[in-house]
Amino acid sequence: MKYIKTLLLTMVGLTLGTTVFAHALWIETNTAGKVGQAHAVKIFYGEYAENERDVTSKWYSDVKELTLWLVGPDKQKIKLATTLGDDVATASFTPEKDGQYTLLVSHPAKDLAGTTQYHFLTSAAVYVGKTAANVDGEAISNELKIFPESGLKYKVNAPVKLKAIHNGANKAEATVSVFSPSGWSKVLKTTKDGVVEFTPEWPGRYVVEVTDYQTKKGEVNGKAYESLWQGSTFSFEVK
Fold it and tell me: What is the pTM of this model?
């Protein structure tokens, strides 16, 4: 009986872990903004490729209590107020000058899935007026991040090169998932330089995610964990 109970608990833990692992947090926002004009930001949790956006009351653990940060062209980091809707967290900001505005979330969930700690990260960039030719990856302060390595505009049938970085170093042999607006998805591996490339076949919003899983012991809210999963997303529009 004790063996059966242990087996059932293990199966529940594995199922919960798999469910959480399949889900991601991502930002949707227009990549072009204007000085003096309010810019809307939306944050979702679910499975983008399946067009699944979970209702906020069912977001895993305390994910709905996330903190959204904005890094402006002057590199100052400010907290944006968020409002919860049925299946979305919304916010807005008003650009005051030209340049790249970077949106960031880094949220370690307070509850464990079995003995695993889950850490959700996401970022997006908004460009106003005259900007640099490439994404400023240094403005993304998340410890695990992925972003387009070059260019600001992306077109159908034109390769997009992505860069993955973890704790300041190129993330070699990392698992990267690409989710398209059509429901198509693909899993890729980065090179030793943390680079991966794919060619978008449809216009619309793409969400890319890099993940990391480590056997790493620690403690959160008085509960010990034995492994750490991190998932970091970035979204952008393809014309």
Answer: 0.90
